[in-house]
Model the fold of this input.
Amino acid sequence: MIIGVDPGMTGALAVIDRGQLVAIMPMPTTNGQVSGSAIAEIIEGYAPTRVCIEDVHAMPQNGSISSFKLGYNFGIVVGVFNAARVPIMRVSSHRWKKSFNLIGKDKSASRALAMELYPAHAHSFRLKKDDGKAEAALIARWGLGEYIRQANTNEGALL
Done:
């Protein structure tokens, strides 16, 4: 079981079990920040074997306050998974998007692909504001594929 995480405030968590998307939920927040306790409850409920989190970095067009908040929330997500002893795989947005041919495309392309790959959950990706959920589902799918590739090539443990 793998959880994919788009770590922003408008991000989400997606759970894949045996290749099937079994849950998708918006990033839980409390008082304007990611809720570590709510993520801990999700981990307890699903007991994932891995988590794949989109790596974040400061963007030139974002202000320092926005960049700090994103980094802070990313730290909460990573900290909760570390505390739960769930192995973490970090992936850049460029890397996972490249594998789905999404480089240079807007967020609606991620939503369309998620609807195509997971038609039973298409309702979860239909609105523009659902891009975080779509990207979390795609990150989880990328993480599963990467885990399988590494296991098949005996490259060792994931980061």
